[in-house]
Design brief:
Elements (H helix, E strand, L loop, with lengths): L2 H21 L6 H29 L24 H6 L8 H18 L3 H9 L8 H17 L3 H6 L14 H14 L3 H8 L10 H17 L3 H15 L2 H6 L7 H10 L1
Length: about 270
């Protein structure tokens, strides 16, 4: 009879991890969108029903007193922890409803972004307290928020995220992505030199992995256009098209930028 609670607990712990694993990759297509929506629905149900499920389990008839854990009493001289005190502390376990809520907001936001609803995507995540997001993925989530705000035309809100887009706070494997997100914001807020210092003047200068190379090229093209070098900017965008087609340009068109006109020209050329 104890298997069901164990399975429920396992599902509650695994759902955020499965959702994040599906959403942290840059993938497209209807299959990925469907998976994201399903993950968001599962997480939302856990948020809404998690407490009720636990209460139903606790109230099962025939539950013996041996199954119920004995209440922990404070040691002499030690005050009992108050619920308000615990609620004011950052969550530390994946099963914490606040972390589940943050993952759900990310999942819903990513689904909306795939559909091109960038303003709604940003709204889904914008007001989630930072300490509700696990530290190991916090900067990546904020990078997504910055991209959605750029694509929604909310440049000022994206600019306010710059202090949070610190690659030193991210795991080493995620730093190139965070660097690219910061550069994209800088180039849209007029700091062209700052953006180029992050993405470099040519491929490989910052030893970026291939997964972010197209993003670096697009940001570099915006910067070069702003510096009055349209031919060099076009060459960067042509490399993107030659490598991965026009889809990557289409994905970044909503974010705007100095090279937007050239991007549209290359998309029309196919």
């Amino acid at each position: 009879m104890m298997r069901r609670p164990i399975l429920l607990a396992a599902a509650g712990a695994a759902a955020p991890l499965l959702a994040w694993g599906a959403l942290a990759r840059w993938r497209g297509g209807s299959l990925s969108l469907g998976a994201a929506c399903a993950a968001a629905a599962v997480i939302a149900l856990l948020v809404l029903l998690g407490g009720d499920v636990r209460r139903l389990i606790a109230a099962r008839p025939g539950r013996s007193s041996r199954e119920a854990p004995a209440p922990r009493l404070p040691r002499p001289g030690q005050p009992a922890a108050r619920r308000a005190d615990r609620a004011s502390m950052p969550p530390t376990e994946l099963g914490d409803p606040r972390i589940i809520y943050a993952f759900a907001a990310q999942a819903v936001g990513q689904s909306l972004a795939w559909e091109g609803s960038y303003k709604a995507a940003a709204a889904s995540l914008r007001d989630v307290p930072r300490d509700w997001i696990p530290p190991q993925v916090r900067v990546l989530v904020i990078s997504n928020l910055a991209q959605w705000q750029l694509c929604a035309g909310d440049i000022e809100s994206a600019r306010r995220l710059l202090p949070d887009l610190d690659e030193q706070r991210a795991p080493a494997s995620a730093r190139p992505l965070v660097r690219g997100a910061r550069a994209a914001v800088l180039v849209r807020t007029g700091d062209v030199e700052g953006a180029l210092s992050l993405v470099g003047l040519r491929d490989g200068e910052r030893e970026e992995p291939t997964e972010v190379r197209q993003r670096y090229r697009i940001t570099r093209a915006h910067a070069l256009t702003a510096l009055g070098e349209p031919a060099a900017a076009r060459a960067e965008l042509r490399r993107v098209v030659d490598d991965v087609g026009v889809d990557e340009l289409c994905r970044w068109i909503p974010a705007g930028g100095p090279a937007r006109t050239t991007m549209i020209e290359l998309i029309d050329e196919g």
